[in-house]
């Protein structure tokens, strides 16, 4: 291999691979540069473990002459026979190289080598890629070169893994921060925080449709069931709403016990309030159906559930609020307060969905006026609307 070209690739990685716009482009550029330098590389994989509640890791697969494949795997893969028989399992668990010359009888324990041989591969090596935090990630290198990789090829691979690990770790840390912020504060809030809006008092006014819901009979449920069971029920219950909310353009801002606060931003310049509120109502109806279908076995009994959701539209203050060095990225304002008061009315009226007059005026639907109600903290009584299709059910 050309040592000068290999050094140039190393320097380029150390400098942050600035000419590559995305991680996939960076992987493609590295592999193509290595091939140009004399490494007979046919297939390359990089496998990055992630800090995410549902995703075990991400993988990038490059093949000569093809686009880089980008994928994710969940934690269930750890219990599969495929992972148990994978060279990568050894790399992750022991942090050592695994060499697999295609056709070598000693490598029968790795089924992937048979698959690669069918595609014309002659050699395979999985190399650990340690990060500075001590976590071990993995790379895999495959060639079709007659006789496989030479000692010089292996030395080149080992030399490139360290600078590749440094730039990969930087990209991974940024992505981990984005994913964790998305998971815990929502995608819009996460983007703002990463963009530097982190000081107390940083906030914006935003017009939005507001969703505030809670589970009926939650206090009694918590009193008669074990805490672990209640947590499991809440997770299933929130799944019924979060999927619908995110699928219709909303962002979940906060879970408060059995309560959920979400917003659906409205672009005042586009004038899409009616479209946004229609999607909010679709999400509410989907959530209602999902919660009604939720059946949770507890011993010999089956728990069924009802919830209430209040829908409103108005201006909110959206940003950092808190004390000392503990901040919360949330929304406040009279519109949020009204939604919270309306949510309490859903239980009194035996309704799943209620809407403010403002929401009902924007979202044209078969609304039924339910009357005017005095609202604590508001000088005027508020007119409340329910869905014409709903039959009130007052819980005992």
From TrEMBL:
<keyword id="KW-0456">Lyase</keyword>
<dbReference type="InterPro" id="IPR050697">
    <property type="entry name" value="Adenylyl/Guanylyl_Cyclase_3/4"/>
</dbReference>
<protein>
    <submittedName>
        <fullName>Adenylate cyclase</fullName>
        <ecNumber>4.6.1.1</ecNumber>
    </submittedName>
</protein>
<dbReference type="GO" id="GO:0004016">
    <property type="term" value="F:adenylate cyclase activity"/>
</dbReference>
<dbReference type="InterPro" id="IPR029787">
    <property type="entry name" value="Nucleotide_cyclase"/>
</dbReference>
<dbReference type="Pfam" id="PF00211">
    <property type="entry name" value="Guanylate_cyc"/>
</dbReference>
<dbReference type="InterPro" id="IPR001054">
    <property type="entry name" value="A/G_cyclase"/>
</dbReference>
<feature type="domain" description="Guanylate cyclase">
    <location>
        <begin position="209"/>
        <end position="343"/>
    </location>
</feature>
């Amino acid at each position: 291999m050309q040592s000068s070209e290999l050094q140039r690739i190393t320097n380029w990685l150390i400098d942050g691979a600035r000419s590559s716009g995305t991680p996939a482009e960076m992987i493609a550029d590295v592999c193509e540069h290595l091939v140009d330098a004399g490494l007979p590389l046919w297939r390359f994989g990089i496998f990055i473990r992630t800090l995410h509640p549902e995703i075990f890791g991400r993988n990038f697969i490059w093949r000569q002459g093809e686009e880089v494949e980008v994928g994710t795997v969940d934690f269930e893969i750890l219990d599969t026979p495929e992972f148990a028989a994978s060279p990568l399992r050894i790399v992750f668990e022991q942090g050592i190289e695994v060499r697999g010359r295609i056709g070598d009888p000693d490598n029968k324990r790795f089924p992937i080598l048979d698959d690669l041989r069918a595609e014309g591969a002659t050699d395979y090596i999985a190399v650990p890629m340690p990060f500075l935090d001590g976590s071990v990630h993995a790379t895999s290198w495959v060639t079709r070169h007659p006789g496989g990789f030479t000692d010089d090829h292996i030395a080149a691979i080992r030399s490139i893994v360290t600078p590749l690990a440094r730039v990969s770790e930087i990209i991974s840390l940024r992505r981990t921060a984005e994913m964790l912020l998305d998971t815990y504060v929502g995608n819009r809030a996460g983007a703002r925080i990463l963009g530097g809006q982190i000081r107390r008092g940083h906030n914006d006014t935003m017009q939005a449709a507001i969703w505030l819901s809670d589970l009926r009979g939650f206090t009694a449920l918590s009193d008669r069931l074990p805490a672990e069971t209640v947590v499991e029920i809440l997770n299933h219950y929130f799944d019924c709403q979060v999927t619908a909310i995110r699928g219709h353009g909303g962002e979940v801002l906060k879970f408060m016990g059995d309560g959920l606060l979400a917003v659906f931003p409205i672009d005042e310049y586009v004038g899409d309030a009616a479209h946004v509120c229609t999607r909010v109502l679709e999400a509410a109806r989907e959530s209602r159906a999902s919660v009604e279908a939720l059946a949770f076995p507890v011993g010999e009994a089956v728990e069924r559930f009802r919830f209430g959701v209040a829908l409103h539209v108005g201006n909110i203050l959206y940003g950092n609020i808190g004390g000392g060095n503990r901040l919360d990225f949330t929304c406040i304002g009279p519109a949020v307060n009204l939604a919270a008061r309306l949510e309490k009315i859903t239980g009194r009226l035996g309704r799943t969905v209620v809407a403010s007059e403002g929401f009902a005026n924007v979202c044209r639907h078969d609304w039924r006026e339910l009357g005017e109600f005095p609202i604590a903290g508001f000088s005027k009584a508020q007119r409340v609307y329910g869905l014409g299709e709903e039959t009130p059910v007052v819980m005992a």
